[in-house]
Design a protein that fits this description.
about 350 residues; two-stranded antiparallel ribbon; 12 helices
Amino acid sequence: MPTAPRSSANCCAEKRTADLPIPARPSTDRSAHRSYVGKGSGMTDRIEEDLGPNAPAEPRKSLGVRIFEFPLVAMLVAIVVVVIVTGIAGAVMLQFGKVDSELVANAVPVVIETILLFAAYKLIVARLGERPRDDLPLDRRANDLWRGALWAGALMSAIVGVAALLGGYRLLGWGTGDSWEMIFFFAGVHAAFFEEILFRGIIFRFLEEFGGSWFALAISAALFGLVHLANDNASMLAAIAIAVEAGVLLGGAYMLTRNLWLAMGIHFGWNVVQGYVWDVPVSGKAVEGLVEAQPVGSPLISGGMFGLEASVVALVLATAAGVWLVALAVRRGHVVRPWWTRRRERAVAG
């Protein structure tokens, strides 16, 4: 239906500026927002724009509050919180490392760490920044956890299959599966929960709030690759591969869903399937899987002693999957512009 012409002033006042994804707010007559809802996959979350220019002005905050809420400052505070929590969990690990039971030694410290991290995230980290945001919602979006695990397991199995066809992976027979406690709890639960909260829930989130989505994706991926240089059998090539394939894949999962569940599921399924099912070293850590296998041929195909994560096969397939997730995020409008751009546009709109 045709509408009456509007003045340029009104058009300017109604101009929307894409802002950071924030938790759903109670709707009011004076709020202007637009929602982007994913279709079909069940993976996506709603993104709402901030209040429009005509919304009631918020009380001016003090300089100290504004500094504390600045994205990079909030990120540092959140990292300190996580370091303290993991330090407490580390002390617990030292105590349980003395027990004879492998199950108890692996499970109890990780369970305690996960509970402490979850509480610290909900009570502190999610409340930091100018726009507090909970990326671990306890609703139907948590189903992305198992979806991500299944999807990553299938992706890793495809990588193993292609590597075998190219002569980089040799299956020798049945294995012992003796590493299941370490793989499930440390490579699975610990890596998925701790690393995703740190790299996507904190570093990506606040870098995105500061420099935009592309800045956050690049820096968080690079940092994720660099920390893997400390792993067994690591090399610069392995770190670069991790940064590109896993950094883009997990960052894309976060951009698409705007919560951590899908990224956590992917991280868990990726590590558990490659280690426990296919006997592939998990980021350089040798394991005992359900089958017995060994890397053969060129390290470019097999990944060498670091595992298939350092192979060209994983680099191509996992990066392609990550680019697909990022493309879906872009299509659904889940891209955030830099802080200074948003600030300038709000000033113009005001």
